[in-house]
Specification:
21% helix
Length: 338
């Protein structure tokens, strides 16, 4: 087995393992159900993979994966790349959840549209044991044993079945990297089930904003331009309920930095909001998917600034949820509706 194929196999297992307890969102089995209890324990261990970016330390074959909620927080989706930035880069996506009928943890993993793997995972002491087979591609059976020496390290061995015996083919270590955000920053991020072009338009055009977020919008997309919005359908742009943001800089379809220069008359944090700004980043997260990050910068330690931070913590999360729902609803609408 060549190096790239081994790495591909390695990552299908690693990315498949990101779930949290009760991720299925379905009615749990009775507490006396021993199989379901075992699945819960396994999922609790697997949840250590959620958060940050997992990478290896081999510059010749870079691996990078992230894990996000999907399908109304019922499934964890892993997305990433093998040989990221290299000549043989391959995209990988997978889905992991609980099978309520079998009382077990399942995974389904796709590599570049040419190979698909399926199987399950169990917990043996503190070790995770994956057993799976090729669903699409050359027929084979595989086994991985993985462990967390610490919360930010994953070590594992992958073996292939040869003549009825398990033969080790990969031994590897991945490390978790987390964004280096300072105490004065607030980060909200998630996956939008829509391409970057559509998400950018929803954020930066009058029609886009009015389709999901505000009742009225006026946007002059240029350096120094303004984004003026109003949530009240009965209000008008320019009245005391108007919100005005100044565009500090932007890179089309990738980044937008804005600063509040006009807040509603009854806004309670008028001093603190003058000291902060917001950076919105968009990243292609696969076919028709966008990773959106909202980063608030410039929060201070004073009481008003901390209250403003809490205000935007709730507000940014709500905004992200609404944007996700906009495109989720669009995806459910039949093409010939209306």
């Amino acid at each position: 087995m060549n190096t790239l194929k081994r790495i591909c196999l390695l990552c299908c297992l690693v990315t498949a393992a990101a779930v949290v307890p009760h991720a299925s969102g379905q009615n749990p089995a009775p507490k006396t159900d021993a199989a379901f209890a075992d699945a819960e324990k396994t999922l609790a261990k697997l949840s250590q993979l959620v958060g940050g970016t997992w990478v290896n330390n081999d510059p010749k074959m870079r691996i990078e994966f992230r894990h996000q909620w999907a399908f109304g927080n019922k499934i964890i989706k892993g997305q990433g790349a093998i040989d990221k930035g290299g000549p043989r880069e391959q995209q990988v996506e997978n889905f992991v959840g609980v099978d309520p009928a079998k009382r077990s943890v399942f995974y389904l993993d796709c590599h570049g549209g040419t190979n698909v793997f399926s199987g399950n995972v169990t917990l043996d002491g503190q070790k995770l044991v994956f057993e799976f087979a090729t669903l699409v591609g050359p027929a084979a059976k595989w086994r991985e044993v993985a462990a967390f020496p610490d919360k930010d390290t994953l070590q594992f061995t992958i073996s292939g079945e040869r003549n009825g015996k398990w033969v080790s083919v990969v031994n590897a270590t991945l490390k978790r990297q987390t964004p280096n955000h300072g105490p004065g920053e607030l980060v909200t991020e998630g996956i939008i089930e829509a391409p970057v072009d559509a998400v950018w338009a929803a954020l930066t055009t009058k029609e886009g904003q009015e389709s999901w977020n505000v009742a009225h919008a006026e946007i002059d997309l240029k350096i120094g331009g303004t984004m003026r919005t109003h949530y009240d359908p009965k209000g008008t742009i320019g009245d005391p309920g108007t919100i005005e943001n100044r565009i500090l800089c932007f890179e089309p379809k990738r980044m937008l930095a804005i600063r509040v220069t006009g807040s509603p008359a009854n806004f309670p944090f008028k001093s603190a909001i003058q000291k902060m700004w917001t950076v919105i980043r968009l990243e292609n997260a696969g076919p028709s998917r966008t990773r959106l990050s909202i980063v608030g910068v410039g929060y201070g330690d004073d009481e008003e600034s901390q209250k403003l931070r809490a205000f935007f913590d709730r507000g940014n999360s709500y905004t992200l949820k609404k944007l996700q729902e906009k495109f989720a609803a669009k995806a459910r609408t039949p093409a010939n509706a209306g």
